Amino acid sequence: MSAANSAHSVVEPSLSSKRIAGTIVVIYALITLIPLVWIFLTSIKSPPDSISYPPKIVFTPSLEGYCNLFTTRTRQTPDYIASLPAPVGACDEVTRRRNMVIAGPSNFVPRFVNSLVIAFGSTFLAVFLGTLAAYGFSRFKVPLADDLLFFILSTRMMPPIAVAIPIYLMYRELGLSDTALGMILLYTAVNVSLAVWLLKGFIDEIPREYEEAAMIDGYTRLQAFRKVVLPQATTGIAATAIFCLIFAWNEYAFAALLTSGEAQTAPPFIPTIIGEGGQDWPAVAAGTTIFLIPILVFTILLRKQLLRGITFGAVRK
Amino acid sequence: MRAILRIAARIGRRAGPPNFPYPKRPGENLTISPSSIVEKAADATARATPVSVARRVRGLSDRAIAWLFIAPAITLLLAINIFPLLWAVYLSFTNYRANRPNAPVQGVGLGNYQRVLNDPDIWQAMQTTAHFVFWTIVLQTVIGFTLAYLIDRKFRGHAFWTTIILIPMMLSPAVVGNFWRFLYEPQIGLFAYAVSMVSGIPTSDIQMLGNVSLAPWAIIIVDTWMWTPYVMLICLAGLRSIPDYIYEAAEVDRASPWRQFWSITVPMALPFIMLAVLFRGIENFKMFDMVTLLTGGGPGSVTEVASITLKRAAFESWATGRASAFAIILFVAVFGLANIYVKALNKVKQR
């Protein structure tokens, strides 16, 4: 009996129901993409185009947003600008057309670098500590293991602002305020709970027999961990690392309260990009685009592990 | 018939036994499917390394390694999560002000807690938070479950479109929330323009961030846009965990699709839906970044959620002691509500 096309097959929805479902889902997906597409379009608009009414869908692309993102500018008299040597590069030209000259680089690059350093530093530490702890919880009888694991999870339930008050005081005493090291330690602590929970799940799935066989062959426990378990857990470690990276990359509350200059990351910086007469939306959109692209790539890489990551390993596909 | 079996096998493989992250206490059955009980038992026997193996292992003892491995993570959490929390508890009983570090610190007993609990502004903030949490959960659950149900029809290209739908939830709420301010602009923003095109209301009347009655919905819309995929993904896992033979049996009994939906699909996906609601509830109770950048709590204080009130008390009024008391109250509230909820979740799973 061929059930594949039979109308009464229970497990295989009928063709028309599939078509209707598909149409609705695609419409929803396209609508949710509009804000993201709009961010990108705004980033390649000139400032007058970006604030025109009605909103412009067809326009001449401009690099001005990106130029303004990376530079600071000063207004000058037309006479002064006319007296300058010929403009160097597209940004120079665009800026002069608005009766301005480039005064220097903006803070965007240092803030972006801060984001990179803090996100990668904290991810490395969290995954390192998390892997060790997860292996410990997975393979040994730890007294009160369940309570310890629940305690690790519960640290995620605290509102960030509640933690920020004493952290602010503590960092002030220790001289860690507004330093990359302080932010790395803080994000590591927040991420370690996620890392332990996720990695414990991944390591639980590796059969213990592998290590036991290795140990019978003369490996010590540590050697077996390094040479047998770690290679098996690579996928899980990579997925966990990406989740930690995304959290640290996106985090705003701690960054806004505990950093102000030196160690400020991109999320608190981007909203402060202003031009003449308010927010410079093309520049904000340009910064947002550059900031979001890495996450977009990671989301696509991670799609198979996403469910596991967002539920602390509670639901596995 | 073979085709049915093949699809059933495929789905069965995809849906592993769900495993919930809460401590298992004796007498509490936390497993969803009977098969995972068997697995748990097998796991427990496997946990004890055979004596013959243990005897041959050289180097550090297992006990030493276990602590060596676990201690660094626990130490870090104690230093950066627990120690500050205890400090906040201490501060909540004092009149300490962080902007006057040298002023004498006096104990005020329960005074701060009394002031917080009698402060009408704080109750207003709690109400705002409750409104926000309630409506985001309702909208995200309804839309998320519907989407999951539709994606579970497995139309062509469903995997691709699922990935597309997931994108907003991975983005930074602060950075994207900031950009929504631009979309919400009454004259030049795309949102007002689109709404006025559909409804015919003039764009100047669609002041999403400036109007007292619209602003609470402005933050709900952005949160729903961002986090519906989250609920959808968890619901999808729930739907895929329902074995096909149950539907086949229902079909044999001539149960209507409507009946099948309400007596198979919904109850069997319920633990997953409840888990999604738990995670969203905790997250939105703590909501700070998106709302701060979108409305900053305004206009007036109609979108001032608890975290923003807390931030103002701690970092603008510098009433560190009182803010700490409020922080502790919030933490106890989240923790207490989450615990009650998890108990309910376990009851549902036992059925």
From TrEMBL, chain A:
<comment type="similarity">
    <text>Belongs to the binding-protein-dependent transport system permease family.</text>
</comment>
<dbReference type="Pfam" id="PF00528">
    <property type="entry name" value="BPD_transp_1"/>
</dbReference>
<protein>
    <submittedName>
        <fullName>Carbohydrate ABC transporter permease</fullName>
    </submittedName>
</protein>
<dbReference type="InterPro" id="IPR000515">
    <property type="entry name" value="MetI-like"/>
</dbReference>
<dbReference type="InterPro" id="IPR050901">
    <property type="entry name" value="BP-dep_ABC_trans_perm"/>
</dbReference>
<keyword id="KW-0813">Transport</keyword>
<feature type="transmembrane region" description="Helical">
    <location>
        <begin position="180"/>
        <end position="199"/>
    </location>
</feature>
<keyword id="KW-1003">Cell membrane</keyword>
<feature type="transmembrane region" description="Helical">
    <location>
        <begin position="228"/>
        <end position="249"/>
    </location>
</feature>
<keyword id="KW-0472">Membrane</keyword>
<feature type="transmembrane region" description="Helical">
    <location>
        <begin position="281"/>
        <end position="302"/>
    </location>
</feature>
<keyword id="KW-1133">Transmembrane helix</keyword>
<feature type="transmembrane region" description="Helical">
    <location>
        <begin position="116"/>
        <end position="136"/>
    </location>
</feature>
<keyword id="KW-0812">Transmembrane</keyword>
<feature type="domain" description="ABC transmembrane type-1">
    <location>
        <begin position="112"/>
        <end position="302"/>
    </location>
</feature>
<feature type="transmembrane region" description="Helical">
    <location>
        <begin position="20"/>
        <end position="41"/>
    </location>
</feature>
<dbReference type="InterPro" id="IPR035906">
    <property type="entry name" value="MetI-like_sf"/>
</dbReference>
<feature type="transmembrane region" description="Helical">
    <location>
        <begin position="148"/>
        <end position="168"/>
    </location>
</feature>
